[in-house]
Amino acid sequence: MIMGLVARSDVKGAVELAQKIADFLTEKNVDILLDTPLAMELEKYQDRHCELKDMDVDMVVAIGGDGTILRTQSFISHKKIPLIGINMGTVGFLTEIDPENAFTAIEEILAGNYFVERRNQLLVWHKHELPPALNEVVLMTRKPAKMLHIQISVDDEIMEELRADGLIIATPSGSTAYSMSAGGPIIDPRVEAFVIVPICPFKLGARPTVVSDGSTIKVKLLREGKKAIAVIDGQFEEEINYMDEIVFRKSDNCAYFVRLTKDFYRKVREKLTQGGIY
């Protein structure tokens, strides 16, 4: 087995844990490759570095929060590499393991006591294909306190036309992130759906809508002189202009997560009350 290691290189605790995991895996005779920024922090493993986009491994261990998971997944999306997250962030819905359980969990994985969970992603198209979204795409204005005038279509039927601070198109994975904070529902990751959530709409009837993930969603900007940006998983930005259309549908590339337990609802209960964050 070859395992990739990724960590937030700007967080001392994440780098230190990565060092210990690299040592642990080496002692277990597991070949490892480290994401280049992490390898530069660990002098002992600088000869085992690899750019994340070029990493060809059996599994990737990502140490950080959901942002680290989303960044890592954006680079390996087309490779079907299972990803396991060790939570060094705040909430960490996408991460599987707490740091204190890291080595026990890795032992279980090396023994084959795990399963792989598949998560759907959003394909995003604006003049060309953009990186896929595991969590969500957020449309917003470039200038604060300005509204977007947008038209939303589902399978070529106009669903809504409204003015709002923005719009979120989320997957079930993203339903516990920005979408939830904006009033969207929590969706079990096994549900084959996407959710459309207006952000502070200037229309009483505009409410979050759940649609089939077999649908094609189109969003068009209707206000001349107003530009928007589409932010994909907080990692990538694309500028959208007047009368531009941005298209969303289910991506052919799924995300794959290593899981030790089936405990989605326990995570929801615990993490949404954790530390008074929500």
TrEMBL record:
Is Nucleotide-binding among this UniProt entry's keywords? yes
For this protein, what is the EC number?
2.7.1.23
Kindly report the protein's main subcellular placement as a broad class: cytoplasm
Gene Ontology molecular functions: ATP binding; metal ion binding; NAD+ kinase activity
Q: Give the highest taxon in the source lineage.
A: Archaea
One GO CC term of this entry? cytoplasm
Q: Where in the cell is it found?
A: Cytoplasm
Broad EC category = transferase
Which reactions appear under catalytic activity for this entry? Answer: NAD(+) + ATP = ADP + NADP(+) + H(+)
Keywords on record: ATP-binding, Cytoplasm, Kinase, NAD, NADP, Nucleotide-binding, Transferase
Where are the active-site residues found?
Answer: D66
Q: Does the keyword Transmembrane apply?
A: no
Cofactor(s) needed, names only, are: a divalent metal cation
Positions that bind NAD(+): 66-67, 71, 135-136, 146, 163, 165, 176-181, 235
Among the GO biological process terms of this entry, one is: NAD+ metabolic process
The family line of this record is:
Belongs to the NAD kinase family.
Summarize the protein's role: Involved in the regulation of the intracellular balance of NAD and NADP, and is a key enzyme in the biosynthesis of NADP. Catalyzes specifically the phosphorylation on 2'-hydroxyl of the adenosine moiety of NAD to yield NADP.
Write the protein's name.
NAD kinase
Point out the gene that encodes the protein: nadK
